[in-house]
Amino acid sequence: MVYTIGQFAGLHQVSKKTLRYYRDIGLLEPADIDPVNGYAFYEGEQFERMRRIQYLRRLRFSLEEIPYYWIFSPICGSITFKHVWRIFAWRDASYPASSRNFSHSKVESAMERNLLS
To answer: Which sequence spans correspond to the domains of the chain?
Structure first.
């Protein structure tokens, strides 16, 4: 099924402005853009990607960190503890301790709340 940007935004409880921003930074590309009027359309693949973005945002991943998630995990399937832990390991190695604003307990508490499978 094909959804307009407004429909897709409503289904995911985000604004159209957010979706346009995600498109501009390359985080979530629409399935198609009408060349005549510039309208964006979204499909099933974007649903899964948006769902993953929302999970990672709830774990307090920044928009700059989320693209690294795509490197460490497959695009299909569920988000697993292993995939998220790889991102935390990357973040540990990439940032000085003073700039980190997370703890590994965030992943564990998310697992307990069944946010991740």
So the answer is: 1-58, 59-117
